[in-house]
User: Fold this.
Amino acid sequence: MKNIVVLTGAGISKESGINTFRDSDGLWENYRIEDVANFDSWQKNPDLVRSFYNQRRKQAMEAKPNQAHKELVRLESHFNVNIITQNIDDLHERAGSKNIIHLHGEINKVRSVRDSNYIIELKHWELTKTDKDEYGEPLRPHIVWFGESVPMIEPSIDLCQNADILIIIGTSLVVYPAAGLMDQTPINCKKYLVDPNEVKADFNGISFVQEKASIGVKKVIDEIFIDNHIIE
Ligand code: APR
Assistant:
């Protein structure tokens, strides 16, 4: 079976009602994501950071997978598929995709500040200052903040280095190391990019499908099926 790697960003969840970060609607109460999503902010103003992620968790729990998330599941009967998502929502999981790497963490989980292996799944949306770890310290969101290491980047690089097909969906490709993954693919890897807007990327050898995810992902998958003589 051929290996397909799918790299997703906020744009794939936009039609599920979750705002992207860098559109005009990407500000949260006049804060830029970069100003909230870092450990310094957590230390200086934990209430603000908790409240920001509580709202994101509530929104993610209420959202439903859209057609783009669902279309990707179709690939799994015919290809070895791995999804690398920058998104912290669980819409790929709820759509039914199996192999998912969350590069930037998961909103439904919280963890200890002292012990990064102490991770708890939160069943409700609200994390409070009374939710504590085994040391009695408040739990933090299980999110990779700006300036923190990205532990899942190594397995993601391995997957890209073995990809026959790479599909990139709804990411501005400005945040590293995620944005560099597309350069890790072999020279003969077929690459697609789905985004309704122009993306600052080296388009050399990439098929750009300028569509919203719900439409563009179906187009790409239909093309892949034709190229590979697959009849559903
Ligand atoms: N379908 C597909 N793409 C869309 C849609 C849509 N309906 N609507 C918008 N987009 C595109 C935008 O054109 C943009 O290129 O989605 C992209 C979203 O870009 P960003 O907001 O920058 O999101 P992303 O690339 O996922 O951000 C990367 O930055 O803030 C951090 O950790 C956060 O994971 C995030 C990372």
Remarks:
- The radius of gyration is 18 Å.
- The mean pLDDT is 94.
- The chain has two domains: 1-18+65-104+150-232, 21-62+107-143.
- Residues 127 and 153 are 27 Å apart (CA to CA).
